Amino acid sequence: MSSQPPTSKPQAPDHSPQAFQHGSHNHSVQGQSLDGALQQAGFYPLLVADVVDDALGGRDCLAHLVHLETHFDRAEVRRHITVLVLTEDMLVITHVDDQQLDEAGEQIVAQISTESVPVAQIRSVVLSYMYAQPQNYKPSDPVREVTLSIAWSGGQRLDVGPASCGDPQCEADHGYSGTIAQEDIVLRISAEADGLQAVQDAKLFARALRAVNTGSPAPVRHAPSATHPRPRMGVFANRLSRGHKR
Fold first, then answer.
1. Whole-angstrom Cα distance, residue 52 to residue 66?
2. Rounded distance, CA 145 to CA 92, Å?
3. pTM of the complete model beyond 0.85
4. Phi, psi (5° rounding) for residue 3?
5. What is the per-residue pLDDT across 162-182, written as a single tens digit (0 to 9) for each?
6. Listed residue (33, 29, 14) closest to 201, CA to CA
7. Which residues lie below 8 Å from residue 186, measured CB to CB, with a gap of 6+?
8. Percent of all residues in the chain with a pLDDT value above 70, rounded to a whole number
9. Residue 163, class by beta-carbon neighbours within 10 Å (0-12 exposed, 13-18 middle, 19+ buried)?
10. Helix, strand or coil for residue 96?
11. Mind listing the pLDDT tens digit for each residue in 9-62?
């Protein structure tokens, strides 16, 4: 990865009241179409759109989630994008990084991975919420952050740390304690970094994925993409788990 690509800057998220109305999974509720979300992200949108259509192999999009991550590495600003597209039978995941080959930044290559996971193989969909000031909670309060975890391959993440007895003066060795979580891909979306609409989009995508995965009535389909897909699917070489700094 390298400094951000020479593309148009992302537009500000839509924070209008209409953008947060609840309802069926359509463009007005989710915020925008897949092509519109890619254009707003501004990370090689034409390239990403073509690769996503390529991976869809002619399947119709039921729901989508576009997540652009930006982080700072010393003097550089680095970005990468993850695109989730749900069809009736597949979850198509596309991840795009870029890499700078020279110091001047004139030679850049894009590294792209795609994976198509049968919906029937998805084992769990976990959506974790974070609310600010829960003691003052009102039904109108928005979610400040969500973490979407999807598992299908049986891969697990183990978090281990020293155990304690709760006594700050105790110096005994209590061993280790930890948690095991199933996850193949984890996306963390916050209102502060990504906008309230992005948090709502993540919730709606998780709802649509659960509906298809459990055999519930499928959500309303999105309108067809403006680009034309080609029948080919890519496969990830490694398990997807985006490294979020917490």
1. 11
2. 24
3. no
4. -60, 160
5. 777 777 788 787 777 766 555
6. 29
7. 147, 148, 149, 150, 241, 242, 244
8. 65
9. exposed
10. strand
11. 444 334 333 332 333 233 333 568 999 999 999 999 999 999 999 999 999 999
